[in-house]
Amino acid sequence: MExxxxxxxxxxxxQAISIVAKSLAAKLMQIEKEVEAEVVYILFHTGMRxxxxxxxxxxxxxxxxxxxxxxxxxxxxxxxxLVIESTKTNAGTRKLPMTEDVAQCFRAIIExxxxxxxxxxxxxxxxxxxxxxxxxPLVAMHWEHRFNHMVKRYNDIYRVQMPNITPHVCRHTYCxxxxxxxxxPKTLQYLMGHSDIGVTLNTYTHLGxxxxxxxxxxxxxxxxxxxELEKNKxxxxxxxxxxxxx
Length: 246
What we know:
With 246 residues, the chain is mainly α. The protein has helices at residues 3-31, 34-46, 50-54, 100-112, 140-157, 167-180, 185-192, 197-203, 209-235; strands at 61-62, 67-70, 73-76, 82-85, 94-97.
């Protein structure tokens, strides 16, 4: 397959995923544990790295102000040690605003959170959202397995098959959706935690001909509206109130 054909195929796949993603969480709520569907929804609507989500302690989720504080990530080393690391880049340290829907998902997760036998402390951090039977916080690999299971369950039930969805696909999709909605690129760069805006624009936004056509049409509509406004101003009759009797 030629590079151009591969690129077009990738764009088509990602656009399909973007469309399906809007209803994925809702459908998963019907076939999986609600708490897992809520995680899917959060990842699709915040663009967080899965390692950032896994490392979130309760204290960094400010539901009152609807802000998520991200200043580290949770990783598991090759020798199976759990460690806290700084964010992938300096720009990765950020405060993410959350929508009311995302806040509700976090509230539900926190309300359903089972108190572990003891709170495992990893490099000074504790109170993680999800833990295993040994009270260790879940890491990226756990969620990748859970995503695979959810997609399999979905495909067992629905005729239209779901493509493979991973936590990182959620991040890609969030970025593409925000770009397509017209979000300022610098704002999107901040939300994604990218140090280089080129990464935001070139790696994570998969826009095609249809998107370019829609954008040009939108700009044309704005220009026509501006011309119409100018025309109305020129044709507006002069009111007698504008003249004062002498």
